[in-house]
Amino acid sequence: MSRRRAVLAEMGLAPVWRLRKENAPQQDAVAQAQPALDWIPLKALVSGCTACGLHKTRTQTVFGVGDPDADWMLIGEAPGAEEDRLGDPFVGQAGKLLDNMLAAIDLHRSRNVYIANVLKCRPPGNRNPEPEEVAKCSPHLLRQIELVKPRLIVAMGRFAAQTLLNTDASIASLRGRVHRYAGVPLIVTYHPAYLLRNLPDKSKAWADLVFARKTLAEL
Ligand code: SF4
Fold first, then answer.
1. More confident residue, 29 or 90
2. pTM value?
3. Which end of the chain has a smaller Cβ tally under 10 Å, C or N?
4. Is the CB of 84 under 6 A from ligand 1?
5. Which pLDDT does position 157 carry in this prediction?
6. Is-contact 42 34, C-beta < 8 A?
7. How far, in Å, from the CA of 35 to the mean position of ligand 1?
8. Residue ID of nearest Cα to ligand 1 atom 5
9. CA–CA separation, 87 vs 53, rounded Å?
10. Which residue's C-alpha comes closest to atom 2 of ligand 1?
11. pLDDT tens across 147-188, in order?
């Protein structure tokens, strides 16, 4: 048994895919749509995906980036214009801010964290994703989580938090607590693009990362 699986078993989280009841339909979608694909075939599947209408307007899919064996997994909403152009999540000014905040707790996307979005294609004009688009794309994300087997998920921004936790609750009410998604502890914080527009909230986001680090250390 791997160290990570042993830890999850010790925490009473094995098997990893013990989903909350409300996520069960997503698990079914994984079982139906993506039978245990490994990284390369999964990435190929996503890059050619036409399951929802967003494939018509994308430049390219934005699969995810980082250490495929990371303890930390960060999940945002959907690609923006720069991500759509470059093919990587969290680039541009928001990406730089995120990288700087991660570096302050010794995390780096090339070394010990994996970063992905709920949606792999950019919604036109950066509109909010539609529920059907989320439903169609969720199997991709779920399979990524299954492959990474993170010990902790950080949901970045209101949309990602509300989608992963299946709630309409505000981000303020979701912060500072340990939730669960797909059997994995999950912490909510602000999206770095939001922080660029609301600089006073950077201190809250920093507090969230410190809380996440403390939570992970105590697992
Ligand atoms: Fe497929 Fe997801 Fe892109 Fe829709 S958003 S086309 S489901 S990869």
1. 90
2. 0.84
3. N
4. no
5. 95
6. yes
7. 17
8. 121
9. 18
10. 137
11. 999 999 999 999 999 999 999 999 999 999 999 998 899 999
